C-alpha cells in the first residue's frame, strides 16, 4: 500500500480561542477539525452546498498530547482511517512548532435524509478518500 497523503490546513490561533490558563481551549480543536474536513466534505458535495449535504456526524474523540498556545499557527493533518459501506472515519492531528499536540477521530455517515437512513458511499468518492487512507495497524 502506498503512503497516505494528508490533507493539510493551517490556522492562525486567535486570542479568543485561548482560556484563562493562556492556552487554546479544549473545545476549539473540535471546531478546527471540522473546518479542516472541508476538502473531504467537497468529495461528497463539491460546492459545499448545505442543502445537498449528505453527511452526519456519528462520533468524535480527541486526545490531547501537548498544550497549544496563541501566537503560533497550527496545522491540521487529515487522514482517512477507515472506509466502510456507508461511513468513514477521519484521523486528524494538530501540529504546532513541529510537535503533534492532539489527535482526533471522527466517524461520519453518508446519510439519506429523505428516507432517514444511511446510504452507500459511491465508488468515486471512495477512490478520492482512499488517497488519504492510513495503513491499518492490524496488518
UniProtKB/TrEMBL annotation:
Membrane-spanning segments: none
Source organism (scientific name): Salinimonas iocasae
Keyword Hydrolase applies: yes
Superkingdom of source: Bacteria
Keywords: Hydrolase
Classification via InterPro entries: 4-hydroxybenzoyl-CoA_TE, HotDog_dom_sf
The keyword Hydrolase belongs to this UniProt entry's keyword annotation: yes
Pfam families tied to this protein: 4HBT_2
Name of this protein: Acyl-CoA thioesterase
Gene3D superfamilies: Hotdog Thioesterase
SUPFAM superfamilies: Thioesterase/thiol ester dehydrase-isomerase
GO molecular function: fatty acyl-CoA hydrolase activity
Family statement drawn from the similarity comment of this UniProt entry: Belongs to the 4-hydroxybenzoyl-CoA thioesterase family.
